[in-house]
Amino acid sequence: MLVFPTSQQSLDSQIKALKEVGVQENRIFTDIATGSHTQRDGLELLRLKVEGGDIL
């Protein structure tokens, strides 16, 4: 799961960097939401897929 605190950081560049170091696309989970947004589809999917030994 990626967290990027500033508008200068791009989700696309973060995903690209993860792929370049060998992270499989189906193991990258993202959410784009405001602090008041409670629907976190990426987080829910992560909770279903996380396995022992995974690094978050």
What's the structural blueprint in terms of helices and strands?
Blueprint: H1 11-20, H2 41-49
According to DSSP, the number of beta strands is 0
- Measured distance between first and last alpha carbons: 6 Å
Main β-sheet description = none
Radius of gyration: 12 Å
Percent helix, as a range, is: 25-40%
Oligomeric category? single chain
Taken in chain order, the helices and strands follow as HH
Gross morphology: flat
The parts where pLDDT drops under 50 for at least 5 residues are: none
**Helix segment tally:** 2
> Could you report the average pLDDT, rounded to the nearest whole number?
81
- Derived from helix and strand composition plus strand pairing, the structural class reads mainly alpha
Report the portion of residues in β strands. under 5%
Concise description?
With 56 residues, the protein is mainly α. It has two helices and no strands.
Structural notes for this entry:
By secondary structure, the chain is an all-alpha fold. It has a domain at 11-49. Helices cover 34% and strands 0% of the residues. The protein contains two helices and no strands. It has helices spanning 11-20, 41-49. It is flat and about 35 Å long. The model has no long low-confidence stretch (mean pLDDT 81).
